[in-house]
Design goal:
Length: 338
């Protein structure tokens, strides 16, 4: 009887030690506990049979049973700790680390918005080189050498003696397009421009412009007004007043400057509009007959209009950004907002 009981206890210990190796989670651990340490376990049954034994046997078996029980409890506690450690190491209920995906730069987005509006009016997109020649940047735009208007633009020259420069505006794209295609034409040309300006809250040596050009028979100033009015209403998505006032550009005649009622204060007057209630927003005009002659269009047959606007200026007004430098400083907190 005694020998049989000891064998049984040893067998249970072996089995319990073997099975605990497979316990990998709380549920399995609880099942193991019930099987080996629960009220209906073999160990419990053996404890209850002790009373039938002699005092000597009781002493021996009792000791053995208690040792076994302590061993199993120890196994249980150790395994429980292990499971909890794994659980805190891999807690699947914790919120994940944010995964940031890239997005388009605000300037790229605003260019896309502008292109989409003109696209609806039948304008296609044209592009030209950022490194230009004196001819395309000035001469062909009715601004020959010694023309005082050249001083308007502080130009970055790459090789001055060869007339190679960084374009000061997107207008040379007009010349390149007209040199290549015959009218009717309807294009916009977005791109980078360069001027020797300070880098301050409203200037940057690199900035973006969008040039527009429409040429056909019978194009009048009213077409220009219609196209720009539609564009500005669509872009700012609000009712704005538009003023065309006389201006001067060598490559347009007549030339105009377009102002809109201030989108920040709705025309009441604020620091952005210098309390005038209006903001100058772009330059435009009817293409100068000299420009048509240079590209080989007959100014007696064709007329057209052109305009140029600063992308940063439009973006600053639409999104109420008060410093142009934000666009270029690669501050992800700023750029991530758009
Ligand atoms: Zn204002």
């Amino acid at each position: 009887m005694l020998k049989k009981m000891i064998e049984e206890i040893e067998e249970i210990t072996k089995l319990a030690q073997q099975e605990i190796k497979e316990v990998k989670n709380q549920d399995l651990l609880e099942k193991w506990r019930i099987k080996f340490l629960g009220r209906k376990s073999i160990l419990s049954k053996l404890f209850s049979t002790i009373s039938n034994l002699s005092i000597e046997e009781k002493k021996e078996i009792g000791k053995k049973l208690n040792e076994t029980k302590n061993l199993l409890v120890q196994l249980y506690e150790e395994t429980k700790k292990k499971i909890e450690k794994v659980k805190t190491k891999y807690n699947f209920t914790f919120p994940g680390k944010p995964f940031s995906i890239g997005k388009l730069h605000i300037i790229t987005k605003v260019i896309d918005e502008i292109v989409q509006i003109f696209y609806k009016m039948g304008f296609g997109v044209a592009e030209g080189p950022e490194i230009e020649t004196d001819y395309y940047n000035f001469t062909a735009l009715n601004t020959p050498e010694e023309h005082p208007a050249r001083d308007i633009w502080d130009t970055f020259y790459i090789k001055k003696e060869k007339g190679i420069l960084l374009r000061t505006h997107t207008s040379p794209v007009q010349i390149r397009v007209m040199g290549k295609y015959k009218p009717p034409l309807r294009i916009i040309a977005p791109g980078k421009c360069f001027r020797r300006d300070a880098f301050d809250s409203s200037h940057s040596p690199v900035f973006h412009q969008i040039e527009g050009l429409m040429v056909d028979k019978d194009i009048k100033f009213t077409h220009l007004k219609g196209v720009l009015s539609y564009f500005l209403q669509e872009f700012f998505k609000e009712e704005i007043k538009i003023i065309f006032s006389p201006s001067y550009f060598p490559f347009t005649e007549p030339s105009a400057e377009v102002s809109i009622s201030c989108v920040i204060c709705n025309g009441r007057g604020c620091s952005t509009c210098g309390n005038t209630g209006f903001l100058e927003i772009l330059g435009c005009g009817m293409v100068h007959p000299n420009v048509f002659r240079i590209v080989g269009y007959d100014p007696e047959v064709y007329t057209g209009f052109a305009f140029g606007m600063g992308v940063e200026r439009l973006a600053m007004l639409k999104y109420e950004i008060d410093d142009i430098r934000y666009f270029y400083l690669n501050n992800l907190k700023f750029l991530g907002q758009f």
